[in-house]
Amino acid sequence: MRSLEIHGVDDLRVVERAQPEPGPGEVQIAVEWGGICGSDLAYWRHGVSGTATMRHPFVLGHEVSGRVSALGPGVDGFAVGLPVTVHPARTSGPLPERLAGRDNLHPDLTYLGSAARDPHTDGGFAERITVRAEQVVPLPDGLDTRRAVLAEPLGVAIHAVHRAGDVTGAHVLVSGCGPVGLLTILAVRAAGAARVSAVDLSPLARERALALGADVALDAAEQLGQDVTVAFEASGAPASLEAILRVVARAAVVVQAGNLPPAPVSVALGPIVSKEIDYRGTYRFVSEIEEAVELLARSELAEGVISHELDLADAGAAFTTAATDPHSSKVVLRLE
């Protein structure tokens, strides 16, 4: 079967691997779609994603959807041909009591397509993968596998909204309208926000934000009033965070959804004190991927996040498009 391996910086290879067979408690999935994430691009461009450093080749990808193709011993409740997506996280051992309900922070966690552990965890950019049965998320009626490839990043966005707390009736700011920012707009609107303002330097990104449900889309946060009570920084740019802290209302909640650079950054943090701003981190998700597939089934708006689709054989062009094309948003691979 074909798989997409990363061998080094700017070194992607479509290789033939033996097809994995499902063991006890496992499900084999025929992958149809894979979404290229910022972490995939980071391994390709730098050999590093966050604190994870690539030490040997492995298969990329953690945003996948497809159909059940085989069941391992002891697995029931799934039928061959069932359309599904996958929760990429796999944990082992008990979760510390103080982290109850926060499996995303489990000290012994592996994630599809990650170099955080050695040996690395192979990902989902392959024609067949096997995962634990509890990682398989069936798709609701009305949701096809192409749109379902957005379930993982939408789960990230929904978890960020949960980290913010109740947004009902709030004026919400989303700064940075890449795929996660756009999906945060969709998620926060579904959660009951009264008004959603988006900020991005790109005119095309602002157009997409409006299509996803933003009321206004601006090129600078300073153009907003002082009534923003919840904000999401989704670009990972220190300047974006600093602008948010300047414009949000007193006692606002600010959620850091974008990955900030691993090196020290310069941000004026004074408003956190003077306004008593609640600044919160958010990391991946817990079980929100199940909410994500339900929202994707109800709303076709998420289709606007997908900008390009290319075959697995054209993975190099797909990664280049995702990294450099100003018109790109979520770039997906066809693996059928």
What's the total count of β strands? 20
Can you tell me the overall shape? globular
Number of helices: 9
- The helix-strand sequence is EEEHEEEEEEEEEHHEHEHEEHEHEHEHE
Mean pLDDT: 96
The CATH architecture of the largest domain: Alpha-Beta Complex
CATH level-four homologous superfamily name of the largest domain? Medium-chain alcohol dehydrogenases, catalytic domain
Poorly predicted spans: none
Q: How far is it from the N-terminal to the C-terminal residue, by CA?
A: 11 Å
Structural class: alpha/beta
Tell me the helix content: 25-40%
* Domain count: 2
CATH fold node name of the largest domain: Quinone Oxidoreductase, Chain A, domain 1
**CATH class term of the largest domain:** Alpha Beta
Beta-strand portion reads 25-35%
Radius of gyration: 20 Å
Biggest sheet, in brief? Answer: 7 strands, mixed
Characteristics:
single chain; six-stranded parallel sheet; globular; alpha/beta; 9 helices; Rossmann fold; 336 residues; seven-stranded mixed sheet
Walk me through this protein's architecture:
It comes from Brachybacterium faecium (strain ATCC 43885 / DSM 4810 / JCM 11609 / LMG 19847 / NBRC 14762 / NCIMB 9860 / 6-10). Residues 23-141 form the Alcohol dehydrogenase-like N-terminal domain. It holds the Pfam family ADH_zinc_N. With 336 residues, the chain is an alpha/beta fold. It has two domains: 2-138 and 300-334, Medium-chain alcohol dehydrogenases, catalytic domain (Quinone Oxidoreductase, Chain A, domain 1); 154-281, Rossmann fold. Helix content is 25%, strand content 27%. The chain has nine helices and 20 strands. The chain has helices at residues 38-46, 145-148, 151-164, 179-190, 203-212, 238-247, 270-274, 288-298, 315-324, and strands at residues 2-8, 11-16, 26-35, 48-49, 52-53, 58-59, 63-71, 83-86, 89-91, 109-111, 128-132, 136-138, 171-175, 195-199, 216-218, 230-233, 253-256, 278-281, 306-311, 330-334. Strands 3, 7, 8, 11, 12, 19 and 20 form a seven-stranded mixed beta sheet that branches. It has a six-stranded parallel beta sheet with strand order 15-14-13-16-17-18, with helices on both faces. It has a three-stranded antiparallel beta sheet with strand order 2-1-6, covered by helices on one side. Helix 3 (151-164) packs across helix 4 (179-190). The longest helix has 14 residues, at 151-164. It is globular. The mean pLDDT is 96.
